[in-house]
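Hi R.,

Here's the input for the adenosine-5'-triphosphate complex you asked about:
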Amino acid sequence: MNPNRKIGDVILKAENISMSFGGVKALTNISLEVREHEVLSIIGPNGAGKSSMLNVINGVYHPQEGKVTYKGRTRDKMEPHLAAKQGIARTFQNIALFKGMSVLDNIMTGRNLKMHTNFLQQAWYWGRTQREEIKNRKVVEEIIDFLEIQHVRKTPVGRLPYGLQKRVELGRALAAEPTLLLLDEPMAGMNVEEKQDMCRFILDVNDEFGTTIVLIEHDMGVVMDISDRVVVLDYGKKIGDGIPEEVRQNPAVIAAYLGTSH
Amino acid sequence: MIYRESGQFKTSYQNDSVIFPIKQDRMFIFALLALAALVVPMFASEYMLSGILIPFLVLSLAALGLNILTGYAGLLSLGSAAFMAVGAFATYNFLVRVPGMPLLLALVLGGLCAAAVGILFGLPSLRIKGFYLAAATLAAQFFVEWVLTKFSWFTNHSASGVISSPPLEVFGIALDTPVSKYLFTLAVVVVLALAAKNLVRSSTGRAWMAVRDMDVAAEVIGIPILKTKLLAFAISSFYFGIAGALYAFILLGTVDAQAFDLHRSFQILFMIIIGGVGSILGSFLGAAFIVLLPIVLNLLGQLLHGIVSTQFLSNLEMMIFGGLIIFFLIVEPLGLAKMWQITKEKLRLWPFPH
Ligand SMILES: Nc1ncnc2c1ncn2[C@@H]1O[C@H](COP(=O)(O)OP(=O)(O)OP(=O)(O)O)[C@@H](O)[C@H]1O
Ligand SMILES: [Mg+2]
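And here is the predicted structure with adenosine-5'-triphosphate in place:
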């Protein structure tokens, strides 16, 4: 087994997170831990608060209560750009690509934080900027090869079918070379074949680069297959947390989730 | 132009990152530049230079500025002319108040003043978007016009508020003929167009488009939203400022706040709608269209002399404008530049479409 894959220490810890929108309690006193190099799945019925939890982790939402510790620093609220700087990348449940840009430019944009030339150097272009563009382009081309989307690299993303768009969004997140990758339903709306491809990409990333992955997914087969650990939410509360086998046998989970969908 | 990229395989990313990837495009641009810089000055009439080419170049520059702000960064502005006015008046004041001030330096400083004002009026863009932002830039339009006419310091206390430009020279060469004015304008526009093209194909340009297309995703990637928007305001206003100064000094020969009214702002907006939003080429196409349309209609009027009234022709111009803007907004929001690209894509498959 790849040494990168050995599950390590806790890299992210959320403690007693509570959050509500108006009267709706989206998250109630949730604590969870993410360990280095693991694949953690968050599951739960619709509206359980899964997406909200991801949004809290990378600072898109600010919870009313609780705190998040990431890489040893504890914060009341994370900010998205700080999260990005510290190696958190993510995809969205509703694809959030840059519609007017090509696949290549979308993924290049994911490397924004790796680019350091200023706008005057860029207006001149030749020299530093060109070298920087080429260097980053090489990395992006590797991602494009890895995700098998060479044939559409110059296509505007808006013209791509849904499944490919999801892949491009994964590519854009990977371009940042994240330590922690948050994926919000990366396989939603895909057919079996597309799901298999996506699973393979996710596991490969985890395996080759040791990237820690937190993913939200509804397909139980997939979840049980690829997760090291599973956290179960229901109505904003955590009702299960453990290895897939434990979660599968947890009566509360069966009642709330597995029971209703199988 | 019937050509395609077939047979031209990019064997390195360096080759793929050159400014015009297709060889024929590159050659076409060089030929066009040579024509504009060498042939035109020899043969063009004074009317051709002062009546068509210089206005075209100056308006292209303004359209480039708005395309950076609206086309690439997605920030709608109705205050373009205000920033042109700032550039024109600032350049004027640098020229008359600082002894020995070279024209080029005054232009750059004038552009920087416009950029500073642009940043100021761009600050609300973090909080407001779309229609409301447009309304805020409209405030810039009226505020700047008011300040420039209210305080006579800006017009060097001239009685009428209209001031004629001092004699201009660059590197010891006097800009007193249409040819010299044309060549100077051409040089400025080429340099700034190249800079704009370079900006939009590097990380700054991608950050602008990211903020335009999906700001939450941009933020999550680590793009600083406010800084990115303010940079768009600053750079676009710099372009407006230079365009305004050229408009006043080279084209009109006077510096007059009324040349930069709301009507001018709308004219620039129409240029990018017709030419192509988010396209460098589109800025030039839109400016060419706006400059040429009245001239073509005028010629038509001479041909049809006695058949239709001049009154009708000037109304016709408005109608064609209105019609075209509605057409482009509904049918082809990316303008002439996009239609050109589609034609090229069709030609690539021609004669065997799917
Ligand atoms: N921005 C928001 N504004 C108002 N309410 C919100 C917002 N985001 C989430 N909610 C509410 O919080 C609750 C949890 O939503 P969340 O999107 O986290 O659920 P989820 O588990 O991701 O569901 P799904 O499986 O449908 O994606 C829901 O009741 C939702 O309506
Ligand atoms: Mg969700």
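One thing worth noting: Residues 210 and 218 of chain B are 6 Å apart (CA to CA).

Cheers,
M.
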